[in-house]
């Protein structure tokens, strides 16, 4: 089974400890450092849209790209519920104007856009799923092609230190909508991390995950059904489905990534520790790479297009 098919149904609930708000603040800080305070921005590997929604709410005209139809379906359902909720708000002051997000089902190794972007980013390990230098270079070249003159690309990579720390660990978690067992294995020689994901998913997990995510992003309290489930009230016998996925990711040496950035035609700007936003060290768990488009600066034929609405 491909990555993020069955896992998509329970992804948001089990990844509720991911610091999306902090990551958004980091992205905003870097984009604003380069004068990108609004305009078209694309996210590669957007998943269920958690970061895409946050960046849209911060004033950017967002496009989310992911190859998983299951993840994108949840992202789109969350957007629809959010838009309907705002339209039905009794107090107009509660409404905030957020542009509708365009979601595209594409592989980042061959993505296509309608025009160039002020900024592009990829976070939450998305680039670690590129298993060869050729794939990484391909994505970097595509990004370079779709950036405005002077546009900025930000992407994170999980470090080798983080994968070594994970090692051959087994992680298990059980929630109201299902359970999973994660068996991890890291091959240091090949810099390849492999994990088997065994899942037991409640039949209505997808619907509950969307409701929970929308409530969380809007600041609402926990849903009524979830409260009853947590309290053990009103429970019915429900079917659970067993699913299995295999995930393979790779880490890259920092120096090699910098070389590939330059080979793609982008200008390497800096690499940061994603936790401290300072200099990297041998203990850094996640890197932020920042690259900039430079080749189009003198071109008269390059234009940024706003999508039709």
From TrEMBL:
SUPFAM superfamilies to which the protein is assigned, alphabetical: S-adenosyl-L-methionine-dependent methyltransferases (SSF53335)
Keyword Zinc-finger among UniProt keywords: no
One of the protein's GO biological processes: methylation
Top-level taxon: Bacteria
Entry keyword annotation includes Cell cycle: no
UniProt keyword terms in alphabetical order: Methyltransferase, Transferase
Entry's Gene Ontology molecular function annotations: methyltransferase activity
Cited InterPro entries: SAM-dependent_MTases_sf (IPR029063)
Pfam families: Methyltransf_23
Basic and acidic residues compositional bias, start-end: 222-236
Region feature Disordered, mapped onto this chain: 212-236
Protein name: Methyltransferase domain protein
Lineage summary: Bacteria, Bacillati, Bacillota, Clostridia, Lachnospirales
